[in-house]
Design goal:
Blueprint (H helix, E strand, L loop, with lengths): L1 E4 L4 H10 L5 E5 L14 E4 L5 H10 L4 E4 L6 H6 L1 H21 L4 E7 L22 H20 L2 E7 L1 E3 L17 H10 L5 E4 L11 E2 L1 E3 H16 L5 E6 L5 E2 H12 L5 E4 L8 E2 L4 H7 L7 H13 L4
Bound molecules: uridine-5'-diphosphate.
Uridine-5'-diphosphate binds next to helix 6 and strand 8.
């Protein structure tokens, strides 16, 4: 049985939907930002808190857990600057509690959701796993701290882990049964689609004077279903003993500027966007694009769904958003 912590959240729920096809799954989520409706009915759901040792012990006592996948983190860069305590408490301290209970129950396999924010402002065009890590906000820092704990626990306690550093997760399940639903919404693609649907007045482009071709920031958008598949390959590699301590980037190696994303949304939906140019947002690097060569070479994963497909699936979801 696989324990998915944070399985009611955006990325966790998409992983669960794929994973239940292959494994028995138990989801632990406190529903602080996740949605109960997003959890596939084939998974067992336990409402509980990552930082609560009793909740965790109950799960580990009740189910024969062979691996843990951990998605339960706060992930808003701006909020992490305003309230770093919240980020260190949940993303670091609570994760430490989870790892402690895993060690106690001799559960040795762990997959951790990390982030491009661990790289800070990169000095290379294509970021690979050897690129320097230098987070510029508490969110990125909190993820890097856990990565460090994993490296140490691997050496001392024989914990096997795979760290997956996501770039910009986007899109929705092709069935439109689940998708992205944050409150407040801060991510570019849902914000554009909400504007095109008429539930938001305008789209603010945060900065048009960056050192990029069209002056707007470039990001590497990756379909949430591609992310889910990468987790399953990572899990298989851990369970087979093929991998025991690895870090992989997950992106598609293609950067798109904010302007290109807006244009693609207009093309896919056939609706013209209402756009205004505003000041830069604090802490935004001009360009974040991943090289995912390592996971392609080692596990055979690559992104299959590119920007148009990401937007088409997200659009289907937003038109009929269930939660
Ligand atoms: N962005 C924007 N307007 C918005 C939201 C985002 O111009 O209303 C830009 C943001 O500055 C960044 C890109 O879109 O360059 C992606 O931002 P998002 O918050 O989706 O993801 P991040 O890269 O911060 O994880």
């Amino acid at each position: 049985m696989i324990l998915v912590v944070g399985g009611a959240g955006y990325i966790g729920s998409h992983l669960v939907k794929e994973l239940v096809e292959k494994e028995d799954v138990v989801v632990l989520d406190n529903l602080s930002t996740g949605h109960r409706e997003a959890v596939d009915k084939r998974a067992i759901f336990v409402k509980g808190d990552l930082g609560n040792e009793e909740d965790l012990q109950m799960v580990f006592r009740s189910y024969p857990i062979k691996a843990v996948m951990h998605f339960a983190a706060y992930s808003l860069v701006g909020e992490s600057v305003i309230d770093p305590l919240k980020y260190y408490e949940n993303n670091v301290a609570s994760t430490l509690t989870l790892l402690k209970v895993m060690i106690k129950f001799k559960v040795k396999n762990f997959i951790f959701s990390s982030t491009a924010a661990t790289y800070g402002i990169p000095d290379v065009k294509l970021i690979d796993e050897e690129s320097k890590t230098a987070p510029i906000n508490p969110y990125g820092q909190s993820k890097l701290m856990v990565e460090q704990m994993l490296a140490d626990f691997s050496k001392s306690y024989g914990l096997n882990y795979v760290v997956l550093r996501y770039f910009n997760a986007a899109g929705a399940h092709h069935s439109a049964a689940i998708g992205e639903s944050h409150d407040p919404e801060t991510h570019l693609i849902p914000i554009i689609l909400q504007q095109l649907l008429g539930t938001r007045e305008k789209i603010s482009v945060f900065g048009s004077d960056y050192d990029t071709e069209d002056g707007t920031c470039i990001r590497d958008y990756i379909h949430v279903t591609d992310l889910a598949h990468a987790h399953i390959l990572a899990l298989e590699a851990l369970l087979s003993g093929e991998k025991s301590a690895e870090t992989y980037n997950l992106g598609n190696g293609l950067g798109y500027s904010v302007k290109e994303v807006i244009e693609t949304c207009e093309r896919v939906t056939g609706i013209k966007a209402n756009v205004e140019m505003t000041d830069r947002r604090a802490g935004d690097p001009a360009r974040l694009v991943a090289s995912s060569n390592k996971i392609f070479t080692e596990l055979g994963w690559k992104a299959e769904r590119h920007l148009e497909k990401i937007i088409a699936d997200a659009w289907k979801w937003h038109q009929n958003q269930l939660y």
